[in-house]
Amino acid sequence: MTIATEPALSASAERLRGRLAGSPLAARCEVTDRDLPTIEVAPDAWPALARFLRDDPECRYDLFIDLFGVDNLRRAGQKTRFETIVHLHSLPRNEHVRVKIPLTDEKKPALPTASDVYPAANWFEREAFDLYGFDFTGHPDLRRILCHDAFVGHALRKDYAPGQRWFFAEEDMVAPEWATQTDERAGHFETQTISIGPSHPATHGIIHLIARLEGEKIIRAETNIGYLHRCFEKMSETHQWNQIIPYCDRLNYVSAMINGVGFVRTAEKMLGVEVPDRGVLVRTILSEFSRVMDHCVCIGANLVDIGALSNFIYLYQNRENIYDLIEACCGARLTVSYVRVGGLAIDVPDDFVPRCRSLLESIPLFLADVEKLVNNNRIVRQRLQGTGVVTREQAIAWGLTGPMLRASGVPYDVRREKPYDFYDRFDWDVPISNDGDNFARYLVRLEEIRQSLKIIRQALDILPANGPVSSDDWRVVLPPKDAVYHDMESLIYHFKLVMEGIRVPPGERYEWIEGGNGELGFHAISDGRGGPYRLRVRPPCFANMQAFQKMVIGGTVSDAVATLGTLNVIAGELDR
Amino acid sequence: MSSEGPKGTLPALGPAKAGGGAADFLVTRLEEMVSWARKNSLWPFPFATACCGIEFMSVASAHYDISRFGSEVMRFSPRQADLLIVAGTVTDKMAPVLRKIYDQMPEPKWVISMGVCASSGGFYRAYHVTQGIDEIVPVDVYVPGCPPTPEELIYAIMQLQKKIQSGEKSRDQRSAKLAAERIS
Fold first, then answer.
1. What are the CA-CA distances from residue A297 to residues A294, A445, B157, B174 (Å)?
2. Which whole-number Å values give the CA distances from B77 to A65, B82, B104, B118, in the listed order?
3. What is the pLDDT of residue A185?
4. Residue A143 predicted with pLDDT over 80
5. Higher local confidence (pLDDT), A183 or A354
6. Do B92 and A250 touch (CB under 8 A)?
7. For the residues of A70-104, what is the DSSP string, one character each?
8. Backbone angles phi, psi at A361, to 5 degrees
């Protein structure tokens, strides 16, 4: 079994090779073609390459997607123990590129920072420092970001025991230096530093904002995250492919289904398994319903924060109704664990289509109620319009994706730009706004709910009435229980799958889909065992949250609360 | 009361005086009266950290409506709350915060541990996850489930109401003391 490479990608790899050949970097990098065009570069040439990829008129990789480390300690055939992998996206060319930076010094892995080229790299580099101990020379603020301050060692290194905890007490908390100093200037209000969170009604989950105020105005801010770091990536290295699905559900738990779909698509591509149309369409329908739920909670909670409680009740009722559908499918309400590598856990109930259709009728009624209450409400407009503004350039520089990016005027939606499953067959629009403020994000999300319903309607039309929902490749999917009881071969497949897990061929692959908050990518590395050697999730919230501390500067505390609501940060995905 | 006044001239109390057989008083113990009032007006502090927090929102919303049990008055200040509902995973980074919030709540106070993560760490047997909040605070009711359904949380509140009515003290006084020592 080989990993299929799409022929279109070779052309972009060729072009990259041609462009690089003309530059002084040619001697330092090597372009290969895998699932993505991949450039391997020496650490010291990385910032120059980053600048080249961003600025070269034929490349223009302007959107920073992801940066993470890999530890090759237990993986045969690799040049160096540590490597850094970067994913970039080009909005004008609509393609991804991967940069691999092998780190030669095993004792002190180090590479220069790229945060001056891509501001979005800042937090990603801090994360690689925290979990792998990579030293990004020249980084403005290289501190731990996910693990607590008393943590010893680097948790994602292969020689770190998964269960090794370190005791953390209140005294161990380190406040940033600027927050401990007083800053009283003549002719000004008394400035003060306040701490919002980690347990605060407006933080939705646990996020810690330290803000310096001048009167009501925020003049400096810093976000602390990691309060819900549940070690997703370490856990996925110690489990089998199918056992990871429940962990995926708990990434963005507001739209759990989408995470599972994103993860199993990566594994399926590596295996070369085809899922039957019916299975794919059920996934699409439930993913879009999950998106509706995600946006409903985001809008509802945001409106609660600015004082409009009844909308939350209306929007949440949608969620309850969708829960009923999901519960009928898989038995769980919130964390569904419904997908499997190769298909779905079980078939949908007989009344699946009528249930979906009745939801398609009821959801717009609640939306209309909310629109009537909110859209021309003077208080809402004053709180949301003109606050938390992100310009188009800022949005791209900070690596935002999803509704955040689209509300700033960039029509980047993975479902449209790289249509996966059946998205290229549906007729739907990508809503955008050019305002970039909180109100724009509210409107974009509201419209996306409508577009999702439109997609669901078309998916229901082409959904085959019956047929399998899972592949019949028994090396990947459990054979039917009946066959396991009566047929020796099926019993063996069942035993092998349960005891050893799915044997994904060695290799690596990045697959990305449109999550509730933006580009949700899974980068899996397999060494042929029953579980992934390394699984990296590209969390859209992480980049979005990074922008928050810059967005709030100059606004008031109450603006910060409204802004945080429209970011829709889900801590499970932010901290993983 | 009976020592007051000459024998045989005590004023008739209750139904006889009120006439018509209707009772205008009731006899109870003060503790029971207080417990009854307490159990029906729990003010929860929603310490919602993760997925369980979303299910907690369900319980608080119109469909399940926690206010039928008198505990809908969410207080986001621990000083105004007497029920700490820990909904979601608590990590080692969050643990001191949880303890601080518990310490800030006035007595009497109760704790519901919602979901397996809060109760035991759940399936996160990992380097950054507290393996059960009873390492940090005493717990009155554990709710299993990942996440528990809203019915389960409502049942937990009813169990807690029974406990409050019976006047039972938190059985984890000792572990609370130990945890406090460990923290300090």
1. 5, 11, 25, 40
2. 38, 10, 9, 20
3. 60
4. yes
5. A354
6. no
7. EE-TT-TT-SSSEEEEEEEEETTTTEEEEEEEEE-
8. -75, -40
Q: Chain A residue closest to B53 (CA)? A: A205
Indicate the residue of B50, B61, B183 with minimum beta-carbon distance to A316: B61
pTM summary value: 0.89
Better-scored residue on pLDDT, A561 or B175: A561
Residues of B with CB under 8 A from a CB of A: 47-51, 53-55, 57-58, 61-63, 76, 88-89, 91-97, 99-101, 123-129, 146-147, 149, 183
Confidence category of residue A55, pLDDT binned at 50, 70, 90: confident
Radius of gyration of chain A (CA): 24
DSSP secondary structure letters along B122-182? TT--STTB-S-GGGTS--SEEE-SSSPPHHHHHHHHHHHHHHHHHTPPPTTHHHHHHHHHH
Cβ of A235 within 8 Å of Cβ of B55? The answer is no
ipTM of the complex: 0.86
Domain A7-137: state its class.
alpha beta
Report the alpha-carbon angle A124-A126-A131, nearest 5.
95
Largest CA distance in chain A: 86
The answer to whether B124 contacts A227, with C-beta atoms less than 8 Å apart, is no
What are the boundaries of each domain within chain A? 7-137, 232-575
Residue whose structure tokens are 């890999």: A70
**Residue that has been written with the tokens 């490479």 in this structure:** A5
Question: Which amino acid, A342?
Answer: G
E strands along A215-305, which residues? 217-224
List Cβ neighbours of A279 (8 Å cut-off, separation of 6 or more): A343, A344, A468, A469, A470, A471
Does residue A6 have a pLDDT over 50? no
Question: In the CATH hierarchy, which fold is given to the domain comprising A232-575?
Answer: Cytochrome-c3 Hydrogenase; chain B (1.10.645)
- Could you tell me the domains of chain B? 36-183 (3.40.50.12280)
Q: Are strands A339-340 and A217-224 parallel, antiparallel or unpaired?
A: unpaired
Residue A7 pLDDT > 90, yes or no? no
pLDDT band at A112 (very low <50, low <70, confident <90, very high): very high
Instruction: Give the separation between CA A148 and CA A228, rounded to whole angstroms.
Output: 11
Are A128 and A115 in contact, with CB atoms under 8 Å apart? no
Position B151 confidence tier, pLDDT thresholds 50, 70, 90: very high
